[in-house]
Amino acid sequence: MADTKSSVIVVLLLLTVFACGLYFRHYGLFYSTFLAFAVVCLFLQARRLRASNGLANRSVCVLVLGDIGRSPRMQYHVVSLSKHGYNVSFVGFLGTKPHQDVLGNERIKIIPISELTGLTAGPKILRYVTKVILQSLQLLYVLLKIDAPSYVLMQNPPGLPGIAVTWLVCLLRGSKFIIDWHNYGYTIMALTHGEKHPIVRVAKWYEKFFGVFSHHNLCVTNAMKEDLRRNWSIKATTLYDKPPLMFREAPLEARHGLFMKMRDLYSPFKPPEEAHGEGVERTAFTKRDGGTGTVTLADGRPALLLSSTSWTEDEDFSILLKALEEYEEFVEGGASLPPLVCVITGKGPQKEHYRALIDTLQLKHVQICTPWLEAEDYPILLGSADLGVCLHKSSSGLDLPMKVVDMFGCCLPVCAIHFQCLHELVKHEENGLIFKDSQELAEQLKTLLSEFPGTEGRLARFRRNLRTNEQLRWDESWDRTVLPLLAADAS
User: Would you say 102 and 76 are in contact if contact means Cβ atoms under 8 Å apart?
Assistant: First the structure.
């Protein structure tokens, strides 16, 4: 079905190019650009017919129109492909440093593309169209420059303009096109522009129209799988996010090492001034005996609350801040609760907005810090925390927060805000709690931390449940789900 539609689309594309060339005949630059594009398409189509079967070439291009260092699922794909003998071209923006498993792998080659910024002149719609055109040309150049891959595996969102460009390159080079649906791009755009905005409507049409030309589709929930089938006529395979082995409960030595590093940068990790002693190395949470080298948890330590975020519109952190203010009021009112250190990790567009709000809070018993952690440190911090909080509220209602998957890999119980398919991951009163507003979250924090640091109570029970019901890890899940798709194509 995809191949038949592809042939029709390529003819329509060339006709469109010709029509545009006629329309812009008075503008030499436009005419030359469109004419050159048509010639290149025809040349590459002819080259494809002479090329060897792409499936015999054990190479894959993994594409992210975003920061590859902040795209953990795609990094996991890349590492899994390399483990099974594929040479991987990892294409995306170079912002945050990827994990060492990616950087140190000889089978993985990172190919950077530029994030187009600085387009400030002219109307907003014109700037957006210009960015899409320039990004399309850049992406087309990069994907045609690399060796012809067996597959191109693309993350969506963002899908504009990547889906159409990637499909065209796969058509011309004989590659199989795989889309990994993390969410819908148009629903994320709707958070800013509203559902009825023309750009959002175009984006929805675009994803739906070009999405059907992929050869395989992966998605993150069964709810999304059903939505793709029912509303988009796309058959997808559910590949749940699963934690790799690096996400596990951190041993005391690793905790202390990380806390010592953070102690020098963030005041909540410093020990109390009254805590001193010869030959004892201290943080707010741990201490190391200078004589024996033994690391133990500090007496009277605060509870460590952790949340991670991309600081985008689909996470309202004012909910957490209000809950922490209520927690402060509980303590001031005489409730027997531990002091609390709340660490919110991540980078994103709304970070400075929320940091300004945090600076206005008058809290004595709650400390908040917002660090950015290296890829190797983040799993250790998760594995050291006492409770996780997730404020991800899916724009489509069909994806699941990877941060919770990672927390569960570390046997870290979670309080998560409710949305449509969250039950596929968080089991209320089994591995965590689900809340709907700041007041409910505050009550949950009060209840769960009232017996801290004891080994009884609901918080301890949730952790025991996570230890007992050890979940499937990424490698095993990927081998069961994705590898058979590739093997079927090769046979």
Answer: no
CA distances for 347 relative to 21, 344, 464, angstroms: 43, 10, 32
Question: Could you tell me which of 485, 392, 421, 83 has the C-alpha nearest to residue 245?
Answer: 83
Q: In whole angstroms, what is the distance from residue 452 CA to residue 156 CA?
A: 41
Residue reference for tokens 């001034």? 273
Residue 431 CA to residue 217 CA, distance in Å, equals: 30
CA distance 441 to 456: 21
Rounded Cα distance between 420 and 407, Å, is 20
CA distance readout (Å), 472 to 74, 240, 282, 364, 432 = 18, 10, 36, 41, 18
Q: Are 283 and 258 in contact (CB under 8 A)?
A: no
Q: Which residues contact 123 (CB under 8 A, 6 or more apart)?
A: none
282 to 272, 273, 339: CA distances (angstroms): 9, 11, 17
User: Taking a C-beta distance cutoff of 8 angstroms, is the pair 414, 388 a contact?
Assistant: yes
303-308 and 237-238 as β-strands: parallel, antiparallel, unpaired?
unpaired
Q: Half-sphere exposure (CA, 13 Å, Cβ side) for 136?
A: 15
Q: Which element (helix H / strand E) includes 224? A: helix 222-232
CA–CA dist 310, 351 (Å, integer): 8
- Contact present, 67 and 95 (Cβ < 8 Å): yes
Contact partners, residue 231, CB within 8 Å, separation at least 6:
none
* Close Cβ partners of 232 (under 8 Å, ≥ 6 residues apart): 208, 211, 212
CA 192 – CA 412 distance, rounded (Å): 32
Three-state DSSP string of 264-303: CCCHHHCCCCCCCCCCEEECCCEEEECCCCCEEECCCCCE
Query: Long-range pairs for 229-232 at CB < 8 Å and ≥24 separation?
Result: 232/208
Q: What is the rounded CA–CA span in Å between residue 151 and residue 177? A: 6
Of 130, 139, 170, 153, nearest to 76 by C-alpha is 153
Query: pLDDT tens per residue, the chain (491 residues)?
Result: 444 444 444 544 554 554 444 444 444 555 455 555 554 554 555 455 434 444 447 899 999 998 999 899 999 999 999 999 999 999 999 888 899 999 999 999 999 998 776 666 667 777 777 878 888 899 999 999 998 999 999 999 988 888 999 999 999 999 999 999 999 989 988 888 888 888 889 899 999 999 999 999 999 999 999 999 999 999 999 999 999 999 999 999 999 999 999 998 999 999 987 656 667 899 999 999 888 889 999 989 999 999 998 888 878 999 999 999 999 999 999 999 999 999 999 888 889 999 999 999 989 999 999 998 888 899 999 999 999 999 998 888 888 989 999 999 999 999 999 988 899 999 999 999 999 999 999 999 999 999 898 888 899 999 999 999 877 899 999 999 999 999 887 76
